[in-house]
């Protein structure tokens, strides 16, 4: 027998963790998700309820006291004669309690991502059947329900600095239940049991009490019609139709070296343009490979301007497409030979990229990370919920170049791979690699200092503006609009004389070694002019995937080595509620992002500590499996999960909007006043033709949009209710200086 659940989402970042938890209880369950504003009024939704055995009202930002603006159609859900069993979670619970006459008030001590003992009342009843008297669950809330009423039967509570806090209740005489805690969090106990108990209660109610006409017979056409209509309310299309991959002859040559290669030294000797994705830190999980990508005249270059809603496509250094002609074509729509322009939104851009890659996907060498494909950079404004409103219109939000020839170095086995899709690997590059293989000893000059005699004009965020942004963030956290805000600042550096980007890269990689070092100098229009230049030394992987599975590694929780110099000291701080909550919130958010597209998601590492040159950081690892059989591709996962949760905070939608419109637009007005982050907070990496990909988060990076005259940097960190202004300012400065230091002494 089918069992249909209507899930009403309030644009939360934990929705799909719940959806998945419900689905996991029984394969006959069919869940339909809509938003709280999919219909204008609850009344408009009512006619569809005959198709559903129960409703789950999910968690979310906002305050039920604020009415429609915060909770949409949920405002009058419980008024009137609702004859459908309901389970409310967190915000959903608060809405039910309010309808039953309780008051919704702010907690004195707010709890975001904290584990508490939930203690059952004696009368907890069937919702908590088979539960022990006390169990652990995660709390994400600023608000709570207070005031005993006849209509509200308390079922469980917890105790903290606020006193007794209501954690679960039933609406007297109705099949409406709810919990304040989050049963779906990866650190909650017995979440599945709660869902099973509720489903049992719902079944019983439907069989014994629900009027016959209120629920259509199982399998009726009318039910099918309603489900298919509501299913279309949220876009679930994949970017392109996946196909089975086949092998195709390509050229791959492997050379074994006796000694470790210094990839920088090899790049230094190349006589042609290259992009580099390398590693200054290698461990078993990351930094195993360095990739040198070799663009040439055959390389297609995709540029996307979010603000202009324009994709521009041309070939690498096409003589007809000069920087001037390019600018005119993009801004004034002048047609020129060799350049195609398309007016399209971000989704259409991605469909184009998906279609382009699909034609080139092959089954070859799955053991190699990259065998040719697209490489490049994506800015923060390529992600959902953001707009690029910068006054400078010609700042690309995405730049991807198709590579046919590349070189890989395996840092564990000291092997080189020379790869060519068309069997035309450049002879000059082969020679440089052959010399590196023959040489017994690689000596490397150190490049930690930039050339002497240059001064730097540095524009930094001010402490006052930061303090104001911090207070604004706290206001939203306290009001229940957000649970965590990743607050970031912008800095620019103008050298008095030009410094070669490659020198800047060498210096950054030397001073701030990290597993994801990237060098992308996009002189795609002419050798002398780089339209964008991006240099990073990032500790953080955003997403990696192969045909079968994917991995995300969010970093959240940072302590500076200036303050805590040993791992033991750092561990004590990183295991406190502040850092734990900060990491858990993003971990649950990342699970949600993946669950939206995949059914099989696991937490592979929970908050392990990693050491870097200037900081210790907490890292969690989330894996998604079953990608091969899914209708979604890795590109779908990437696009759907941007912007990276560790750079936004949670819930993602509202926090991103508040940051752009209210918080960072003021904080960063010394650089731009549109709250635009640009390449900082975006991601960098590759889409290989064998469907392997790896993207790192753009932090600890430097980038220029003006032919390397001005360098931009961003730095920030997560603000929670447990943050202090001084602590966050110091953390932001430490991160900023890990890149800025190259200009400082
Ligand atoms: C925002 C930055 O970093 C992000 C925030 C972190 C944190 O709050 O602990 C850690 C790593 C990044 O996800 C930055 O480095 O600028
Ligand atoms: N997680 C939630 O649903 C939070 C509900 C509400 N916005 C609060 O902060 O209390």
Automatic annotation (TrEMBL):
The Glutamine amidotransferase domain, residue ranges: 7-199
GO cellular component, one term: cytoplasm
Family affiliation: In the C-terminal section; belongs to the anthranilate synthase component I family.
Name of the protein in its database record: aminodeoxychorismate synthase
Residues of the Chorismate-utilising enzyme C-terminal domain: 464-735
Native species: Lachancea mirantina
Keyword terms of this UniProt record: Folate biosynthesis, Glutamine amidotransferase, Transferase
Pfam families on file: Anth_synt_I_N, Chorismate_bind, GATase
Pathway it works in: Cofactor biosynthesis; tetrahydrofolate biosynthesis; 4-aminobenzoate from chorismate: step 1/2
Gene3D superfamilies in alphabetical order: 3.40.50.880, Anthranilate synthase
EC number in record: 2.6.1.85
PANTHER family assigned: AMINOBENZOATE/ANTHRANILATE SYNTHASE (PTHR11236), AMINODEOXYCHORISMATE SYNTHASE (PTHR11236:SF18)
Cited InterPro entries: ADC_synthase, Anth_synth_I-like, Anth_synth_I_N, Chorismate_C, Class_I_gatase-like, GATASE, PabB_fungal, TrpG/PapA_dom
Record flagged with keyword Ribonucleoprotein: no
Classification via CDD domains: GATase1_Anthranilate_Synthase (cd01743)
Source species, domain of life: Eukaryota
């Amino acid at each position: 027998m089918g069992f249909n659940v209507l899930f009403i989402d309030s644009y939360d970042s934990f929705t799909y963790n719940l959806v998945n938890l419900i689905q996991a209880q029984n394969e006959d369950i069919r869940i339909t998700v809509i938003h709280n504003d999919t219909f204008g009024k609850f009344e408009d939704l009512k006619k569809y309820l005959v198709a559903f055995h129960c409703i789950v009202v999910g968690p979310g930002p906002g305050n039920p006291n604020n009415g429609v603006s915060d909770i949409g159609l949920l405002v009058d859900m419980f008024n009137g004669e609702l004859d459908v069993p309901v389970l409310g979670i967190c915000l959903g619970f608060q809405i039910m309690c309010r309808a039953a006459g309780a008051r919704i008030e702010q907690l004195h001590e707010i709890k975001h991502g904290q584990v508490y003992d939930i203690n059952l009342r004696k009368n907890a009843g069937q919702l908590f059947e088979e539960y022990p008297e006390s169990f652990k669950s995660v709390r994400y809330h600023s608000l709570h329900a207070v005031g005993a009423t006849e209509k509200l039967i308390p079922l469980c509570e917890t105790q903290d600095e606020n006193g007794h806090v209501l954690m679960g209740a039933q609406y007297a005489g109705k099949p409406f239940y709810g919990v304040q805690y989050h049963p779906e969090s990866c650190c909650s106990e017995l979440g599945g049991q709660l869902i099973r108990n509720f489903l049992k209660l719902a079944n019983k109610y439907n069989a014994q009490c629900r009027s016959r006409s209120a629920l259509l017979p199982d399998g009726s056409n009318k039910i099918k019609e309603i489900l298919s209509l509501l299913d279309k309310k949220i876009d679930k299309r994949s970017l392109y139709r996946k196909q089975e991959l086949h092998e195709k002859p390509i050229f791959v040559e492997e050379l074994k070296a006796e000694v470790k290669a210094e990839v920088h030294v090899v790049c230094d000797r190349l006589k042609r343009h290259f992009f580099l994705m390398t590693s200054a830190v290698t461990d078993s999980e990351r930094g195993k490979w360095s990739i040198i990508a070799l663009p040439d005249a055959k390389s297609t270059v995709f540029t996307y301007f979010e603000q202009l809603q324009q994709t521009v496509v041309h070939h690498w250094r096409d003589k007809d497409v000069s920087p001037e002609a390019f600018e005119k074509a993009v801004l004034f729509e002048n047609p020129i030979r060799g350049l195609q322009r398309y007016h399209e939104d971000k989704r259409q851009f991605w469909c184009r990229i998906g279609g382009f890659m699909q034609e080139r996907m092959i089954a070859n060498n799955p053991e190699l990370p990259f065998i040719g494909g697209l490489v490049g950079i994506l800015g923060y404004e390529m992600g959902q919920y953001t707009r690029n409103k910068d006054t400078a219109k010609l700042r690309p939000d995405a730049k991807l170049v198709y590579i046919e020839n590349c070189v890989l170095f395996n840092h564990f086995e000291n092997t080189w791979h020379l790869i060519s899709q068309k069997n035309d690997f450049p002879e000059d590059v082969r020679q440089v690699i052959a010399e590196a293989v023959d040489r017994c000893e690689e000596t490397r000059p150190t490049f930690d200092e930039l050339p002497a005699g240059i001064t730097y004009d540095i524009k930094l965020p001010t402490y006052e503006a930061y303090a104001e942004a911090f207070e604004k963030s706290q206001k939203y956290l306290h009001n229940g609009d957000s649970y965590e805000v990743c607050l970031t600042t912008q800095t620019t550096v103008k050298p008095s004389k030009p410094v070669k980007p490659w020198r800047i890269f060498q210096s950054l990689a030397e001073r701030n070694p990290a597993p994801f070092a990237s060098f992308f100098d996009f002189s795609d229009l002419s050798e002398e002019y780089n339209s964008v230049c991006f240099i990073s030394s990032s500790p953080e992987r955003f997403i990696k995937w192969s045909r079968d599975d994917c991995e995300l590694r969010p970093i959240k929780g940072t302590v500076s080595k200036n303050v805590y110099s040993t791992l033991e000291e750092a561990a004590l701080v990183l295991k406190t509620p502040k850092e734990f909550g900060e990491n858990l919130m993003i971990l649950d958010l990342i699970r949600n992002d993946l669950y939206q597209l995949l059914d099989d998601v696991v937490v592979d590492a929970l908050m392990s500590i990693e050491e870097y040159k200037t900081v210790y950081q907490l890292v969690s690892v989330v894996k998604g499996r079953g990608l091969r059989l899914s209708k979604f591709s890795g590109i779908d996962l990437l696009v759907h999960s941007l912007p990276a949760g560790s750079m936004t905070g949670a819930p993602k939608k509202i926090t991103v909007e508040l940051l752009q419109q209210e918080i960072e637009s003021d904080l960063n007005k010394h650089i731009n006043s549109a709250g635009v982050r640009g390449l900082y907070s975006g991601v960098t990496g590759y889409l290989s033709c064998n469907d392997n990909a790896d993207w790192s988060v753009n932090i600890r990076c430097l980038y220029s949009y003006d032919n390397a005259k001005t360098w931009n940097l961003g730095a920030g960190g997560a603000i929670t209710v447990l943050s202090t202004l001084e602590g966050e300012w110091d953390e932001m400065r430490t991160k900023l200086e890990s890149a800025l230091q190259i200009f400082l002494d």
